[in-house]
């Protein structure tokens, strides 16, 4: 069939239109298929997201029907999800009934008001906590509510833990705050700007503020600012270095100046905390300790013992001069603080350490002194014979103190003492005296052989140290008078208790006599000695008889001298009378030679009469029968008259007599004749025994001087004669011995005679004193002092 071109064109157009429509449909289908595949993939992705999401969606229809994934049943503890919301609660599974009812009420309220809500659920049979957030679903369906159920178990657990931790930290902060507030020393906190942000009560009291807010507001600092080292600068340095800084500075605490130790503690971005501790007493204690250490070292340096101190690192830190001397060490070497081992080595090199076969081991043992629990004491015998006593004292700081005492001399003295003790014991045992030592309790402590023999005691008995009471009872039978034994006990008691010395005598039954004494000893004991005086008693009796015989002979001699003096006066008077008659020419005119003889006879008779008179007066004075008048005597006139009479005699022999009377002399009470006799005797002797040429070739001179001092008159008679030997001066005032030791008179026959002894008797009878001073070749001085009447 033939188609027209128009038909063909129409068919072609239709076919082309179908083809285009087919292509468009195919393209659209392909695009829809692609969109479907995308939607499927998105649905699968969203399904995966919903399955792995931390929340489960729950859709509640208007009639309460539920639409939710099955895993919501696991969260709720249900074996199978119910169809309606109200069936979520049960008696033993699912939600508690009250929570299920409350959730249903929340859903109904949201359906009516379209308001979202949130509720926490606690499924039964577990510890899971669920949070439900509900709101309208937004699907356009009236009354449909979409609930999102979140598992808040872990979050709640973390919240509870964080809440507990927060509470604990709060309590700790409160406790720390209370502790800081109650701290007795100032504490503070600086904020990031290093300004004060918090202070405690001690800080407020220290800076005398009203309260903490006032102190923070005013910025009252505890420590005054110093050059480049104020409190803010110190806090900034601590924060910059991120370490705790401490410094000791002065501060005014409650108006008092104190030393405090400031500690700044950096807290990172939170600022800087600080506190101040009062170290005033600590600083004072440290200063006292330093002073004590210096004083101790000064004291150790003054000790005679050698001292060396080592530190904890065993280096030498101190030594004194005796240590240097004892071990021959050099100060320069010790100044380098050598170690303990080196010091021992140097001691060994100087032969000032004990000899040891194994010196390293010996040194190692001494090194253990540093850790010894107690002090160690040793004795060092050195090669040179020196002996040291060593005390090693460990110190609390780990050091060691060594003290060396040189006991060489002490041991030598101890050896000498032992020798002396042995000698004393031997001497004690061989004494002629009986000696016993009684202790303070009355027991016999020590005795010698003589003591044992005298009392007839056995060694066994003495070895028991008998008491003095038992000893007295034992020895009483050996005494002639047994009752005298109690005296021994009493003397021992007085010597040991009253510390007094007593003595006495006893007679034994065998006729022996003993003199005993009890002497207190310094140690509290008593020394009892007995001396056999049997022989001396016989000698004493013989001497006593001889003394009595001598006294009788002296009395007879005195009586004989007195009688002879009286008997000699009669012939002397006759001689004197006849010589005067011859001289007067009664027997005829005498020649010149005869006259000289008569003059010599008269002179000798005068001298002999004076001598007999003096002897008679001396004898009477010794017998106490010399008569003395008690008159008021003018000493000035008496002395002047005596000097006048002696001047003529001195001029006759070529002497110078100087008389010095210093008024007023006043008066004395006494016998004027006897006082004149004293002056005449002394002047007469001075003139007689002073050569005309004097001593040493100068002219003879006699000084007669009288002065008064207070209530005493002093009469001085001095010459420049030959003097008197010292060993014979005392004999001048003895009876019948005055010629011995005196210088020879000019005529070689005169002697002082009894004038000086009589002069002494007369001066003493008037209450005065007489003193003689002489040196051979320098003359003699006699001084008479008499008590004078008041002026």
TrEMBL record:
Keyword annotations from UniProtKB, A to Z: Kinase, Membrane, Phosphoprotein, Transferase, Transmembrane, Transmembrane helix, Two-component regulatory system
InterPro entries linked to this entry: HATPase_C_sf (IPR036890), HATPase_dom (IPR003594), His_kinase_dom (IPR005467), HisK_dim/P_dom (IPR003661), HisK_dim/P_sf (IPR036097), PAS-like_dom_sf (IPR035965), Sensor_HK_Regulatory (IPR050736), Sig_transdc_His_kin-like_C (IPR004358)
Transmembrane segments: 6-30
UniProt GO MF annotations: phosphorelay sensor kinase activity
Reaction catalysis annotation: ATP + protein L-histidine = ADP + protein N-phospho-L-histidine
Signal sequence region: none
EC number: 2.7.13.3
Highest taxon, organism lineage: Bacteria
This protein's name: histidine kinase
